[in-house]
Fold this protein.
Amino acid sequence: MSIPLLEYKPSSQNQRVPGYEVPNEDTPRIYRLEDSPTESEIKELIWAGYRQIFSEHENLKFHRQKHLESQLKNRTINVRDFIRGLAKSEAFRRLVVETNSNYRIVEISLKRILGRASYNKNEEIAWSIVIATKGFSGFVDDLVDSEEYQTNFGDNTIPYQRRRYKDRPFNLVTPRYGDYWRDKQETERYKWGDINNFLDMAKSIDIKTVSYTPVSTANITIPDTTRNEKPQGIPVSINPSASFPVR
């Protein structure tokens, strides 16, 4: 039996109040399935979904979920199920879920699926309990099937950052893993010879001193290499104009 979602108080974030900004380059482009009748437009919508969920500037070929793409192109599934499938994919699990704590998974998932940051620490704790009881798959279902998701994106709209007042886009301020995972990876990389082990390596070196032997040039006999005899035989030259035989 799963524990019900703990109560938390929403804070006043930008996405909770109407916006009156003049549209500019920071205004997110909204991708809807009903606005994508052509093949090129549906490809742009699919790419927008990858960019929103994976938040990678370069979508690698082995990250693609071709079965989900095919179903969306054929209108077998809607955009909401496409987003659900991307978030539950093995690629997302490997890139995000396995490299973060539950709290950070909540932070990233709220930004990428609901298009907003977490309200406070209490919300992160509440959703992390959902992950612990229902698993990550159940957590994704609760987000995608939530009233908040349906109200803001419905069935056919790619999620987007709903409001941005001062901060940079989420994909620039929230990388797929945190500092502690990066530091852990770096620590495990340190092997013999790396700078982290330099002092230990230097102390373990067995230095053998070389005994100095003075050498006096007066004791060195230089052999005499001068020739006293004259060369024998017929002189040979490579010059064709010479008077003696040519080689």
User: Anything to note?
Assistant: The mean pLDDT is 79. The CA atoms of residues 192 and 198 lie 8 Å apart. Residues 121-144 form the longest helix (24 residues).
